[in-house]
Amino acid sequence: MAGKGGSGFRSALTEVGEIAEFTDRFFRNAFHARFEWRELIRQCTVNGALTLPLVGVTAFIMGLVLTVQSRPTLARFGAESMLPAMVAISMVREIAPVITALICAGKIGSSMGAELGSMRVTEQIDAMEVSGTNPFRYLAVTRIWSTILMLPVLVVFADGISIWASWIGVNLRDTVSWELFYRQVFDSLEYSDLIPAFIKSFFFGLAIGVVGCYKGFTTKKGTEGVGRSAHSAVVTASLLIFILDLLVVQITDLLGFT
Amino acid sequence: MADPYPPGQPNAAAERVIRIQDLHLSFGSNHVIRGFSLDLHRGENVMVLGRSGSGKSVLIKCIVRLLRPDSGRIEVLGQDMLALDQDALDHLRVKIGFLFQSSALYDSMTVQENLEFPLRRHWIATTPGEADALVGEVLAAVGLSETRDLYPSELSGGMKRRIGLARTLILKPEIVLYDEPTTGLDPITGKEIVELILDLQRRYNTSSIIISHDLHVAKLAANRIAVLHGGRNYLEGTYEELRRSEDELMKRFFVFM
Predict the structure, then answer these.
(1) Which domain holds residue A154?
(2) A130 with B91: Cβ contact below 8 A
(3) N or C: which end of chain A has fewer CB within 10 A?
């Protein structure tokens, strides 16, 4: 048992090292003179625009549910008027970035793991390489850039949708104009709420892209391996998102963004 | 057009395009290649014959540096493959075609897009018209002009192999490496593929290394056969020389011929 646990720990550490090496390789290739703009735009469309509906629906539900469920507690303390501010700060600072990142880890991370994994086991990546195309630059760098660039966009979109849903939630019982609600939200938000959330969404994008591509590129053992790559991309990226969230909160706290 | 280099006539005087010297490669404790050497001359078809699992595919993957050998030397068109940096390697790889056993077509692209992909990557065709013409030329050469808009999943095994060959040839390589070109195909389609390989070799003036255990391919296509056994050079000769060999392994190979 101890032997199995030891080897599991060793393989987890090896994987951490390999992901760090993969990230380093990304940064060494990320600004290469011959950049794959066309593929980047395609990936931004796939990973960004086509993820908007899913993120939008989830953000709507989160905003609405948070509002409906928080209202009785706030009402008990006579603080119902704080509802827009509370929902906005919770969503902008934490819920929207983390939930959006987890959704993207599920949708984008798994699709990258499966697509690249399938290309790996059917020798398509090798075919690309022997034809003189660098598959890392063409497939991995563009995908990782797309998640880095699209995650903040998706998070801002989720922020907007969830705040709008919160206004609908408030109006289920009361009548509050959009203008008043909007003013209350923006009066409560400060740059120190927006900046850390925006910064961490870049890191979440990096984590999703790197893990998805790493899992795809290192797929082994045929179709079974493709399935394993897809689900372990989701699990690893989700775990990384929480770890990064913890780190970014600590760092931004130290920097005074509280 | 006369065959510039008919089977059974080794031509050591021709320019050497590939030189492999004392190659070694292990995967953990499994020593797959244990000191293999081979020369390929311009216009020549050399077949590397060996049993399944003897390391033939590993060998050609080393030639294009998909795998890095533990030791030894690989020279391609006068350049040391193992010493090249990534950009120089990518540049040299354009001159080496590689036909995968699985054809390895990009399954999210149509046949046309599969063939255009290497052209776009290397700025060989800068306008859609140029790309179209080049794609049309290679598709006609492999006899599949009507498949432009099909996806790989809509093609048969033999058609995939032909499209794979077309994609290999579209960059006009000087050397082509074939990994089991007839494996998994029926004998008629296999023979058609070998005839196509010979036809394209004459048309595009390529030199080839063919990896196979199929003696029909050896008989039809190989000028010279190098037998890989136990990770080393076992025997070398023409098809007829090996067929007449008294060696036990060769007798077992030729038992159905």
Answers:
(1) 2-254
(2) no
(3) N
Give ipTM to 2 decimals. 0.86
Q: Which residue range(s) make up the domain with B240?
A: 16-253
Establish if B7 belongs to a structural domain.
Answer: no
Asked if B121 lies within 8 A of A132 by C-beta distance, the reply is: yes
Q: Which residues of B156-187 are buried (b: 16+ CB within 10 A; e: fewer)?
A: eebbbbbbbbbbbbbbebbbbbbbbbbbebee
Cβ-Cβ contacts under 8 Å, A137 against chain B = none
pLDDT in tens, B2-38: 344 444 444 556 789 999 999 999 998 999 999 999 9
Q: What are phi and psi of B22, to 5 degrees?
A: 45, 55
- How many structural domains comprise chain B? 1
**pLDDT score for B131:** 87
pLDDT at residue A173 in the model: 84
Name residues whose C-beta falls within 8 Å of residue A126's C-beta, 6 or more positions apart in sequence: B61, B66, B100, B104
What pairing do the DSSP bridges indicate for beta strands B207-212 and B224-229? Answer: unpaired
Q: With contacts defined as CB-CB under 8 Å, which chain A residues touch B57?
A: none
Give the CATH number for residue B246: 3.40.50.300
In the numeric block, which tokens belong to residue B216? Answer: 């029909």
Residue B44 counted as domain residue: yes
What pLDDT digit, counting tens, does each position of B74-131 carry? 999 999 999 999 889 999 999 999 999 889 999 999 999 999 999 888 877 667 788 8
Cβ <8 Å between A130 and B171? no
How far off is chain B from A131, nearest CA to CA, in Å?
6
Is the Cβ pair B122, A132 closer than 8 Å? Answer: yes
Burial of B48: CB neighbours in 10 Å, binned 0-12, 13-18, 19+: buried
Residue B187 lies in a domain: yes
What does B42-61 look like in DSSP terms, one character per residue?
TT-EEEEE--TTSSHHHHHH
Q: Does a structural domain hold residue B200?
A: yes
The answer to whether the Cβ–Cβ distance between B90 and A132 falls below 8 Å is: yes
Q: Do A131 and B171 touch (CB under 8 A)?
A: yes
A interface test, pick of B65, B86, B90, B123 with most A CB neighbours within 10 Å: B90
Around Cβ A116, how many Cβ atoms within 10 Å?
28
Q: What is the DSSP letter of A89?
A: H
Q: Which residue of A has its CA nearest to B164?
A: A127
Q: What is the 3-state secondary structure (H, E, C) of B76-89?
A: ECCEEHHHCCHHHH
